[in-house]
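Standup notes
- HV: blocked on the assembly model, inputs below
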Amino acid sequence: MQVSAGLEVINISKHFGGLAALANVSFTLREGELLGIIGPNGAGKTTLFNVITGVYSPSQGKIIFMNRDVTHLKTHERARLGIVRSFQQVNIFLDLTVTENMLQGFHTGFQINFWESLFPTRGIKEKTSQLKGRAFELLKLLEMDQFKNEIAGSLPLGIQKKLGIAVALAADPRIILLDEPVSGLNPSEVQEVMDFVSNFVRKRYMCVIIEHHVKTLLNYCDRIIVLNFGQKIADGLPQEIRQNRDVIVAYLGEDT
Amino acid sequence: MRKYWIQIVAATVLSVVFIVFPLFLSKGWLHILIVMLFNIIYTIGFWVIMRMGYLSFGHAAYVGIGGYTSAILTTMLNVPVFISIPISGVVAAAIGFGIGKITLQLRGIYFSITVFAFGEVLKTLWLTFNKPFGGPQGIWGIPRPSLFGFKFATHISYYYLILFFFVLVFFFLRSLDRSHFGFTCLGFKTKETELLAQSVGIDTSLYKNISFSISCLIPGMAGALYAHYFNYISPFVFTFALSTDIVVYSMVGGTANIFGPVIGAGILTIASELAFAAGYYRSLLFGVLLLVVILVLPNGLLGLFRKGR
Amino acid sequence: MLGLIYILMSLGLTMLYGIMHIVNFAHGEVYMLGAMGTYFLTVHYKVPYFLALLIVAVASIPFGLVVDRVIFRPIRGKWLQLLVATVGLSMVLQSASWVSFGILDKGVTHPFKFILRFWMATISGERFCAAILGAMLVFCILLLIYRTKLGRAMRAIEEDEGAARLQGVPPNFISAINVSIGFVLASVAGGLMAPVFVVNPGMGFGPLLIAFIVIIIGGLGSIAGCILGGLLVGLIQTVSAVFLGVEITYGLLFALVIIVLIIKPTGLMGHA
């Protein structure tokens, strides 16, 4: 009985000029797993996400998603297959309202062909209402529904970060890659978001989280990978990582 | 509900003003209105990619491509005007598509200066080659269009022709703005948000290229209509000055919705005609106006009526 | 080989703006005003040529500071508004000049009236002087950017303004300095080129276009790219202008732009 491997990252390297941002990173993510990626600043965590989502092409290696080689697909093609991410720096449509942001996220959910989209037909209006409803439900889960008509740029940082995650979820992912989803949030917000991830997100989608702050991930993730200088230096259960010498050395002087 | 009443009243008033009233106007006035309509059409075409965050500083080039194509088709190849006009639009759109493919990957300023450079190069092309572009003398004797025997020879008839074209373009672009396509395009204003859009599955290149082609199609056809109105074109019509005029109209009016360019182009064309401002004084005035608008009213006149955006 | 030096000069101007990320459409007009200033000083006030250059250079500093304070500072960071504002400024400067200075071309005579012969090429005194001084200026600026503390501060602001501010670098001050230096370079370039070509209020446009082409080809945000691009463009321009004529040259240059953009969208040495 073959356990379906959702995401396989095979021997990925990425060079920028002479600098190796990633070197021979490999791991596999199975359905139902919540994977955490940690490492000091500059370890290559976001670069790894960029390679997985197609923002960068790898200098070497392959990405296989649901048994399909996606290494040469463009970002939006991978998104349509279900690889969706959120961003480390707040990245949302600042001059649109929260609901409109969600509608952009629901783009593939509209399921209309391109030519239909050029004209505002009744069918589209109905779909829009429908999707606005779904957006509202999703916002409620993140306790942001009261902001639904606010302009995104006017919201406080914590809410903006949550919006970033909400938009990613709206895109109907199979795997969601969260890049430092709780950085910059106060402790109660951190708990809120991580509980949401744990209770809602990981039950429906494969999920990978990058976090700089290690303690958070140790408590929530099934498995943790540690990157340092572009290389994978550890891969295992949280309690193993907690005691791993190399990891401690890598973080020496950093906040653990 | 009240919103609909306002729209109906406004539509009626506008119809009277622009359809009935001109029958009583002199040729001089009709000429001004025609030029105004041309400027409005160029500017709303420009607005299609402006709203995506791309400032095209060489948009006069596409007006010119349309104008020259139609001039050549009708004077040298005897193509009927009403066929050559759409063809010219398509040619402008096609060239725009090609340019877009290469330049839309560039961001912000670099896009602007590249399309600016393109506009200049095109102008030198028209200046240099006497065959088929007529060089500095341009092309003369461009015919007025005829439809089923009726020739649009008078000012008033051409006015209605342009008005008709404007109304078509206006409603087409307005519908585009409100469509899903238009909505999606709002997400591309910066590099980061474009990446965000891609991350949720939007093929941003496709949207950008199509938008840009549309924004070249419209001025292209307008340029053709321009050529047939004046019966003459030269490289000195489609210069950087025209491109900047379009930008000024757009900035003054505001870019939040389709009415911005209409208001900006409309008001400024009439105002500058009334003031008999011409040549360098006009440039001076527009330059000052541009600076004032940027520093004081960055959202243009529309910004006075709407909050945010 | 002379167009090459001329490009070297204009690129010295563009690279400064590479740091500030302000693409300044009015740059051509500053160049033109430098030339105009030189003309007025040498012809109407009988000031010796090199002194006139110096006066023009010094005068452009306050001019730059004012422009920076009034126009650039309020809209820093908003590239679209900056770009449009510089276009507005350019329109104002150029049309005001047309109105005030009249439409006739003016000429400036150069103190060096000799002619040099190198291999097969002849170089007139004024071009030679412009070339040497221009190269010297660019060299000085490069020294400033790469070897001084001020230059480090400038580069820091370019790379990461937030971090630079944390280190105590005052962005407004640096911005003002950058703009002033840029204006000085532009106006001196204008003064240097005044004896070579004719002086009229529209003379800034051509160099501006070339400068843009250099930026795009050489690479966005890359100083080395600017230099490389400048050399390349200068070479092509000189060769092609001699054999093919001026108009084709522009077309050729733009064709090069397209080719570069297709192969490497960020320019020859640029980075996204």
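- HV (later): unblocked. The first strand of chain B starts at residue 139 and ends at 140. The two ends of chain B are 24 Å apart (CA to CA).
- Next: hand off to the docking folks.
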